[in-house]
Amino acid sequence: MTTTERHLYDVVVIGAGGAGLRAAIEARLAGKKTAIISKSLFGKAHTVMAEGGAAAAMGNVNSRDNWMVHFRDTMRGGKFLNNFRMAELHAKEAPERIWELETYGALFDRTKDGKISQRNFGGHEYPRLAHVGDRTGLELIRTLQQKIVSLQQEDYAETGSYDSRIRVFQETTITELLLDGDRVAGAFGYYRDSGEFLLFEAPAVVLATGGVGRSYKVTSNSWEYTGDGHALALRSGATLINMEFLQFHPTGMVWPPSVKGILVTESVRGDGGVLRNSEQKRFMFDYVPDVFRKQYAETEEEADRWYTDPDNNRRPPELLPRDEVARAINSEVKAGRGSPAGGVFLDVSTRLPAEQIIKRLPSMHHQFKELADVDITKEPMEVGPTCHYVMGGVEVDPDTGAAFGSVLGLFAAGEVSGGMHGSNRLGGNSLSDLLVFGKRAGEHAAAYVDTLPKRPKVTRIDVAAAAEVALAPLVRTEGENPYTLQQDLQAVMGDLVGIIRREGELSDALKKLHELRLRVANVAVGGGRRYNPGWHLALDLRNMLIVSECTAKAALEREESRGGHTREDHPAMSPEWRRVNLVCSLDEAGEVHLERKPVPTMRPELLDLFDRSELAKYLTTEELTGLGEE
Ligand code: FAD
């Protein structure tokens, strides 16, 4: 017999990264009783690890910047597959969300004249990333948490309880969403320390669970990122969009093996760092694709001049969007021009004085000294691609964050949602994304609650079923070890659904994932419910598998190369495929189903922001003809 602690809320936010906290603040400001649930300790989320900054066209460092330029860069970075409305809202609202953070107490680095400082990043035409050294995410989380504490203090003054309107449940994992017909009715989960179950009864749930990177061995993601929100959405009848697009960040550590995959921030290149191969050649000049040719320097001299005179020179190719740089590094290593540990060299030591490096990149200096015994003020780093970010995610209404599919009352924001970044995210666009769409999701979740004539009900049968599924790995006396299964899954995804993909390998991956699904259904864990990480992983595996299957299926279906999806057997970008979103759902038998849906057509005034010659690189002849004469 198991007991389940019960809680009643209006809005439950699953995830305490930037998206979750911003959503929770908004729901609470709208007067809703709000719970924030976090799988890890409160304050430990990917958001806190974000280094470079948050992209917002404030125009502080170059006054030519504005939302239209940011929108254009985002669409270019995503190779025009972005949901244009999300990219528009994001570009328009990001500056306000950054300024708002300062009203919550954030303190960004400053320009000489006292404005919020902004730095260069790949794919952004002007310096655009508001930052705090290379620890921007820490300031973001600190500030949002501080805002929550201040709201709790207001609540205490009024009700005598800090938790009366907003409460944080940390080290608590949600394993199931519960429905009443087609409406969200609650969420079921467990405390990680005691293993005890909890039930949240709530008519609205905001998913803000972040990414999926732990399905890959070489990843910048930490242990929590097992695609839980993606899987919860699927199992409750929502849909996922474009799951084939995964961002392999070009610069992860490659040495020593124990830290392989840990991120080396793009700020290193933004601040002047260059990539060289074993022949000491700055190879990125050989990899500028036609679509970007006009915007990137052709010589080292021009590239170097850009850092001090960006108005009269073109950008260095090291600052191409991440997918381009990751593929280039991959090709250099494959051609035998890699570094001893199988990466390439990233050098800032010959580009900036030591004291500048320590001031601008303190975390990187510390990280390499501590983990690899490398002093980046004196020697180059060795770097290579690492699985970093998922562009695909829950298909949402761009304005409200409401999930598409057959379920009502479900919202998603931040990395778990899809569409905003198209086929490739620009660095810095995630921190601003989660502020813009976190706020919107919180606001609309609260508004949705107000529309309900009565609260949906959770049934005892559903709670008992969720408990049974959660306990199954502990009840089984014989079965497979979850750690072995995770390693096998990571091998399938890394080897067959990695940075470069091929039809035969993807088909093979799907077969292997199917076999793994059967094995995961038989996973067994020793020990009890207290502090049992093997049990936690056994439950996460179910999510990782279903999400990996969506990725592999969509990767096989999309016969082109675009952004974070490279098919060796279909190397070109296809204008026809640009019109297609791949939408993943679960059928009644729990099998992954993939469907093609048209990409929404961009409004004419947004299309007008691009030259016709640029649109011709992405759009079909039919679409271009439809635009009429220039
Ligand atoms: P997260 O911050 O990832 O938070 C997810 C939350 O969900 C966590 O609290 C987690 O515990 C919780 N959770 C997950 N599953 C469950 C569950 N089942 N039950 C309960 N809780 C759950 N982006 C930028 O824009 N600029 C940068 O400079 C930058 N640098 C980065 C550096 C690193 C090392 C990494 C890994 C990412 C970086 N990114 C950067 C990307 C960016 O940090 C993330 O995409 C973003 O923070 C995601 O925010 P989020 O709120 O969606 O989710």
TrEMBL record:
Transmembrane segments: none annotated. Keywords: Flavoprotein, Oxidoreductase. Pfam families: FAD_binding_2, Succ_DH_flav_C. The keyword Zinc-finger does not apply. Gene3D superfamilies: FAD/NAD(P)-binding domain, Fumarate reductase/succinate dehydrogenase flavoprotein-like, C-terminal domain, Succinate dehydrogenase/fumarate reductase flavoprotein, catalytic domain. Residues 487-601 form the Fumarate reductase/succinate dehydrogenase flavoprotein-like C-terminal domain. InterPro entries: FAD-dep_OxRdtase_2_FAD-bd (IPR003953), FAD/NAD-bd_sf (IPR036188), Fum_R/Succ_DH_flav-like_C_sf (IPR037099), Fum_Rdtase/Succ_DH_flav-like_C (IPR015939), SdhA/FrdA/AprA (IPR030664), Succ_DH/fumarate_Rdtase_cat_sf (IPR027477). Residues 10-431 form the FAD-dependent oxidoreductase 2 FAD-binding domain. PANTHER family: SUCCINATE DEHYDROGENASE 2 FLAVOPROTEIN SUBUNIT (PTHR11632), SUCCINATE DEHYDROGENASE [UBIQUINONE] FLAVOPROTEIN SUBUNIT, MITOCHONDRIAL (PTHR11632:SF51). NCBIfam families: PRK07803.1. This is Succinate dehydrogenase flavoprotein subunit. The gene is sdhA_1.
